[in-house]
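Problem 12. The chain below contains 222 residues. Write out its predicted structure in token notation.
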Amino acid sequence: MRFLFLLCVIASATWASVPPDLASALKTFRTDAPRGWSFIQTTHAQGQSRVEQFDAARPEFDRWTLLKQDGRAPSDEEQSDYQQKLTRRSSNRTAPLLTEQLDLSNPETVSETPGRATYRCRLKPGEAGDKTAAFLRVTLVVDKSTHCIESLEISSTGEFSPTFGVKIAEMKTVMTYGLPSHGTPSLPLTVTTLLRGRAFLVKSLDAEMTLVYTDYAKVGKK
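Solution.
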């Protein structure tokens, strides 16, 4: 009982140091779309593209459909391979809780205007042995009128080595969100990732990816 009480005290002390605008935004923030929303997801990575549809009205493990592969209708083989990979793919409902990794003990106010504020904080390790989080910082832009997060950026502070033989020169992920309006909640708009690095001085780890979310539709809404 005393242990639970101490946890509550620690949690309260942590949130006490968080600016009200940021605290309010984080309490309702989620990285993925809310339940009940269907959408089209377009991915561009390493010279390839893929268009998928997420249908929230369908059964849990039958919600994703491959619409296009590299700008054309997918072949039977590509459809088969896609369906096989779906069995190992995480559900849209199991997106990681990034907010639990934010170190809110001492957030920094980067900039502030009457309508918008930008904050920066450290990232806590996601699991035991995580040697990457210490080299990352999270920047959040909050819209004051809606108390929602407009963008979230996770970026490296400089070159680092997360494991033997691997050198990361740059790592960045940027997520943007639409602001709620006329009954529509805050919804993901884009995700971009960038990685620059090498393994054992010879193998390039360079990679870029862009995800764009469009055609949102509320299940049951006509």
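Discussion. The first strand starts at residue 37 and ends at 45. Students who got a different answer should revisit the alignment rule from Section 12.3.
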